[in-house]
Amino acid sequence: MVPMAEPQSLDVPANGYLVVRASGAAAARAAILGGRKDPEDVQLLLRCPVPRVGRDSESGAKLTFADATLHLQPSGVVMLTVAAAKLSISFAELRPLMFRPVEVDAPLRALFAGAVAHVVAAGPRLDPHGLAHHLLGLAELVLRSALRVELDRVDALAARRREALEYMRAHLGEQSLGADKIAEALYISRRRLYQLFDDGQGVSERLKGLRVERAKALLADPAKAGRGIAEIARDCGFTSAPHFSRTFRRATGRTPREFRERALRG
Fold first, then answer.
1. What is the pLDDT along the chain (266 residues), one digit of tens a residue?
2. Where in the chain is the domain with CATH 1.10.10.60?
């Protein structure tokens, strides 16, 4: 995951990070908003150490072929542009990588830098058609490798998020349940726990929502009709009946008593 303290530009990614984007404003909008038409080109931007061969100008070195363009920018970023139609992986499959910095491990960065250095050094003496195929293959390798790592990371995050939610549900009745206790139970840091729930709702709001859902189930259960509101509040981990009533009404638009009466009548 990209460190929050180090915001990155989509034009100049930080060391160790890859940015994949569609070229052109229309293509970018389609990629982000899910447009029907795939872009003509896909760009890979990666900062890596490449010898300063042919980069004496302010614009850096640039090699252009039929289906690929290699641009070594003065900032140290390598931009490889390839025709999207020539890739064996579809643009829809690339969406998890699009328009966001994705971490790339050292071996893949080294391979990419070495391949780019050889192309720049030997390019003028090699067949342009063959070089274009070589760059397409290099783009395929980087994209597929980064996509596999990213999907594994997303799967791991989803699994840890499920573990956190299961723990919350199992301990909703504990008033002391909070971020510190959940993180300790999962053997992760508090910061890591917050990263699992960085969808805008956060840990405390998610916990509150689970407690309200538990309360709704108890209030709507005819078998629990004899239990008082305060008892249900304690079972769901609320500190007091008034606190429970305020939270429940904000979430549902009804007091617990009103919700129960309506649910049992229904």
1. 333 334 455 567 888 889 999 875 555 555 555 555 678 899 999 988 776 554 445 556 888 888 899 998 888 899 999 998 889 888 888 888 888 888 888 899 999 999 998 888 887 788 888 888 999 999 999 999 999 888 888 888 889 889 999 999 999 999 999 999 999 999 989 988 988 887 777 899 999 999 999 999 999 999 988 899 999 999 999 989 999 999 999 999 999 999 999 988 87
2. 179-265
In the chain, beta strands by DSSP E: 17-22, 41-47, 61-64, 68-72, 77-83, 102-103
Q: Is the pTM of this model over 0.70?
A: no
Report which of 204, 231, 229, 6 is spatially closest to residue 103, judged by C-alpha positions.
Answer: 6
State how far the Cα of 137 lies from the Cα of 158, in Å rounded to an integer. 31
Architecture of the domain whose range is 179-265: Orthogonal Bundle (1.10)
Would you give the DSSP letter of residue 187?
T
Report, in this order, helix, strand and coil percent for the chain, each rounded to 5. 55, 10, 35
